[in-house]
Amino acid sequence: MTLDGPKAWSALRPGETTTDRPISADATVQFIGTIGAPWASAQDCPKQGDAAGGPICFIELVPHLAPTLSGLRPGARLQLLYWLHLARRDLLLQSPRSDGNLRGTFALRSPLRPNPIASSLVRLIDIDGPVLSVRGLDCVDGTPLLDIKPEFGHLTGVAA
Amino acid sequence: MTLDGPKAWSALRPGETTTDRPISADATVQFIGTIGAPWASAQDCPKQGDAAGGPICFIELVPHLAPTLSGLRPGARLQLLYWLHLARRDLLLQSPRSDGNLRGTFALRSPLRPNPIASSLVRLIDIDGPVLSVRGLDCVDGTPLLDIKPEFGHLTGVAA
């Protein structure tokens, strides 16, 4: 069993299956900022963010990356990618509702996955220097940020 | 100027700005599979995938992760995250149309970004053991895969 981060997100539930293969380190990611959110632990987080009515969260970008925000405007819809640093990475089959109904990790949007990268769509409320305020996040306070992308183009990638 | 991968995706255009800070290695990602696509170079790739009419691409999952696909069905819409291994990571301001109209990297969905992770929505056509066929990708043949997520829940994260 391989854990990543200071602790496993959760203990195993009945039937959940893990791999004992080590996690290969094929490329490195850099944290571009940190998310400030009102949830202190994974258990406190909502299942999914709410870009309309959810609480405002703050993103503090690494200062030298501030020029990368040029062209972003309040009101924009953004896709954020972030690194779920507390999540275990070894689950093959999961039972999210603890009901013994097992599904493969890639048939779920569970935070527990080989590469614990979350993707959420948020509303940009304001920009103040290297600090962005957004609605729509769902993660633990202190979660590292990986990427900010404008939403456009993404939702039209699949015909309805 | 810091390059990542065997070569830069492209040369700099007029006005484009880079950082000379080294890329920090804050976490590691593991490649969970490889994408087979009909495009041999970045210049050949479409700007965006087409999940309805685009060509079929193949994903060959790392064999020991095959159980993670349990519960996925042909016809499903999936979000894929993949690692743009040829992309340079040091651009702060970019001019995608070479018109001198500069925007920050995070105001663009350009492949050239601090963490070159692409996100596309695709249609799952078939599953054959550890091989998935999908429509909707836009990347170079041999691109490493990072994650497969069902689409559900993602598009409803932002109120229309």
Query: What's the rounded overall pLDDT mean of chain A?
Result: 89
SSE string of chain A: EEEEEEEEEE
Structural class of chain A: mainly beta
CATH class of chain A: Mainly Beta
Q: What is the number of domains of chain A?
A: 1
Q: Could you name the ranges of chain A where pLDDT drops below 50 across 5 or more consecutive residues?
A: 1-7, 154-160
Radius of gyration of chain A: 17 Å
**What's the β-strand tally of chain A?**
10
Spatial order of the strands in the main sheet of chain A? 3-4-9-8-5-10
Give the oligomeric state of the chains in this entry, treating copies of one chain as homo and distinct chains as hetero: homodimer
CATH second-level architecture of chain A: Beta Barrel
Percentage beta strand of chain A: 25-35%
Count of runs of 4 or more consecutive helical residues of chain A: 0
Distance between the termini of chain A: 40 Å
For the largest interface, the chains and their residue counts are:
A-B, 66 and 66 residues
CATH fold node name of chain A: Elongation Factor Tu (Ef-tu), domain 3
Largest sheet of chain A: 6 strands, antiparallel, barrel
| CATH superfamily placement of chain A | YaeB-like
Structure characterization notes:
The structure is a homodimer of 160-residue chains. Chain A has one domain (29-93, 102-150): Elongation Factor Tu (Ef-tu), domain 3 (Beta Barrel), CATH 2.40.30.70. Helix content of chain A is 0%, strand content 32%. Chain A has no helices and ten strands. Chain A has strands spanning 17-18, 27-29, 33-36, 56-61, 77-83, 91-94, 103-104, 117-128, 131-135, 144-150. In chain A, the strands form two sheets. In chain A, strands 3-4-9-8-5-10 form a six-stranded antiparallel β-barrel. A three-stranded antiparallel beta sheet of chain A has the order 1-6-7, with no helix packed on it. In chain A, a hairpin with an 8-residue loop joins strand 6 and strand 7 (103-104). The termini of chain A are far apart. In chain A, 41% of the residues are buried. The interface between A and B is large, with 66 and 66 residues. Strand 2 of chain A pairs antiparallel with strand 2 (27-29) of chain B, so a sheet runs across the interface.
